[in-house]
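Worked example 3. Consider a protein that binds pyridoxal-5'-phosphate.
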Amino acid sequence: MENIFAKNLSQAMKAKGYKQIDLLNLAEKKGIKLGKSHISQYVSGKTIPREPILNFLAEVLEVDLNWLKGKDEAEKKRGNGMKEFKKSMKLDNVLYDVRGPVVEEAARMEAAGTHVLKLNIGNPAPFGFSAPDEVIHDMRSQLIDCEGYSHSKGLFSARKAIMQYMQNKKVPGVTIDDIYTGNGVSELINLSMLALLDSGDEVLVPSPDYPLWTACVTLAGGKAVHYICDEQAEWNPDIEDMKKKINDRTKAIVIINPNNPTGALYPKEILKEIVELARQHQLIIFADEIYDRLIFNDEEHVSIASLAPDVFCVTFSGLSKSHMVAGYRVGWMVLSGNKRIAADYIEGLNMLSNMRLCSNVPAQSIVQTSLGGYQSVKNYIVPGGRVYEQCEYIYKALNDIPGISAVKPKAGFYIFPKLDVKKFNITDDEKFTFDLLREKKILLISGKGFNWSQPDHFRIVYLPRIEVLEEAVEKMRDFFSYYKQS
Ligand SMILES: Cc1ncc(COP(=O)(O)O)c(C=O)c1O
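Given these inputs, the predicted complex is written out as structure tokens:
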């Protein structure tokens, strides 16, 4: 138990950025008798302190007392001789920090009664966005017809609407058979990687990325090779970097356009260059276009598949963001281009699609309504609309904070600001997010969570109303006026 306590103590000190001397100073301030030699014995695992010291440590380190004592783990280990169940090794290198350790810490703080402002996840509903009335009405009225499984790829009406949507986006040659509905795009990202990858196969994935892509490539046994998106070039993909990273094992390129976390919208010229690379090296293009209906200033979204009639493409989209129904879990993927060369892969997709029987049928039942007629999301993304105005506000307010700079998003509801690491002495961006959370009760995710290799970025979800964003920015301005990582 001593060793578990020592391990937990070190972990909690690291998370808070405390050295032994900091604990001694805090103890002195609180009038608690704690000597230098005591604390070093605790850290080295030689002894466990008495209850009052344990209480003090748990309080200043903001951790659960029983966890700190190592009681839970020790009990598990004794476990009456029972074996422990460990997670599979397939998960060893899988990372998904959007719901990771900083988020768990925020949940602990909330359980203890602290209000935390969450700017970590692109979930519109908690910020007062709701589904269009017509969508709710239509789901209600179709509910009794949705009791059974549907075709494994989805309802005819849903797939027909998606097919027409792709026609409007000028993607050629898409038939009903090329469309698969899923429980959100998430399920289909996983399915499409599982069906494709063998051990050691490589997939080019953007950095920064929406981390599910890297996670699913890894889980499927492949290797995610990250190409750089260049902040100096409005976060567009760096084509030269992509080229350098293609080799015999490369099977596919993933693009996220419009992008999460950067808010970039890729111009046609860049897309054409990516298509050319895929053409030359015979790669599949996976295009995640879930934000394609959330673009500011009437800029046009070009579906990369529309530029690649001869390249096999898989395009993903869904209603989570454009219709503010992330909880309904409805997304789709569409095959286009040279399907002949992918016949065997498509068989694999069909097998996996059949094995999960079908996606959520009530959710599929609103696809036709959602994609047809007036798109009410437009009200949010024009001047005066909530998402547009919140974007304008956060962009200006962040750039006003000394040491922070950000490229203006063109779409979506994320911004990926840069930290002046020299000014703040930041070497560990996750620690920065822990510090911000504990000191200012603001939850956001660091660049590391998006497979960004330098400790110099973080993502903000600007879905909250401006009044709430203002409060967050004021707290951040104060935090950055004194923050220096030790
Ligand atoms: C780029 C991107 N792709 C896919 C998803 C997952 O969406 P869904 O709710 O359809 O699973 C998200 C969610 O944030 C996203 O940002």
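Take a moment to read the result before moving on. The mean pLDDT is 93. The chain has three domains: 2-85, 97-128+380-482, 146-371.
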